[in-house]
Amino acid sequence: PASAALPSVVLPLTPVRGGLAASYVVDGEPFVGVVDTGSPFLLVDGTCGEVSRGRWGCYPRLARPGPQGSLNDASIEGFGGQETLVEWRRGRVELGGSSTLKLEPAVFGVVRSLQRRGGEAAIYLGLIKHRQPIIRPTFLEQCDARALRVDLRYPDARTLEVSTRRDFVSPDADAVPLVDLRRLGAPVEPYAGVVRSVVVNGETVRLKRPAVAVIDTGTTGLTISDSLLGDGFGGTDELPLPGAAIRHVDVELETESGASVRALG
């Protein structure tokens, strides 16, 4: 899509029911979405009140037709605790205030209905960039983002920065390399790092297989896969504890030099 791209755009983040949300404008209408490093698409609320009484904005059902409108395409998408019917459209997307990143035409999704499976319903600003060819274009792919930074250091000034021209990690930094899970069949490339160690209730878990941790800003807790926790959540030989007995978890990731960095705890 054609874009007027600044070197970077910084969006303030506001708390919303345990998550952090950013504001953006689509086809001239204001919207709010949870910043989500666990999903790939920019979504807007088209239920107009079904989700949290319209706190996320309202994309009208009778939107403009034509090449900048409906793609005559809809799908069922799963996001955390909800299953959504998404209508896919093209239009104009703007992020930022005086320093605005503009995309036109941009592909985005309009949530027309949803069914909760537990958890809190929300609208998401997806921040996964890379995908398999069969997946629809991601938001960061369309704006040609080079790097992103979620800055949580200051509770009263938390921000999301999207850069189109520079990296945020210096070449000499001992960073955590990302693992591309598309090689294992994942439809997109989440932000996953190799797990160096897992400590549960003060005891180190003896992992028998390689493990990865996905950094997901769209969720508020720690999720453990069934393969490690057990299908009935009754524990495995690697983690011989039922889920209800887990009180504290520390996760360390492996850096480029082979050192460890505490990522969760």
Structural class: mainly beta
Compute the gyration radius: what is it? 20 Å
Order of helices and strands: EEEEEEEEEEHEEEEEHEE
Fraction of residues in helix: under 10%
- Our count of helices gives 2
User: Tell me, what's the shape?
Assistant: globular
SS elements, strand count:
17
Low-confidence spans: pLDDT under 50, at least 5 residues? Answer: none
Mean pLDDT value: 87
First and last CA, distance: 40 Å
Please indicate the percent range of residues in DSSP E strands (runs of 2 or more): 35-45%
Biggest beta sheet summary: 9 strands, mixed
How is this structure best described in words?
- The structure is a single chain.
- With 265 residues, the protein is mainly beta.
- The chain is 3% helix and 41% strand.
- The chain has helices at residues 139-142, 226-229, and strands spanning 2-4, 8-12, 14-16, 19-26, 29-36, 43-45, 70-79, 82-95, 101-116, 124-126, 147-151, 159-163, 192-200, 203-204, 212-214, 249-254, 260-264.
- The strands form three sheets. Strands 1, 3, 4, 5, 6, 7, 8, 9 and 10 form a nine-stranded mixed sheet that branches. Strands 13, 14, 15, 16 and 17 form a five-stranded antiparallel sheet that branches. It has a three-stranded antiparallel sheet with strand order 2-12-11, with no helix packed on it.
- The chain is globular and about 55 Å long.
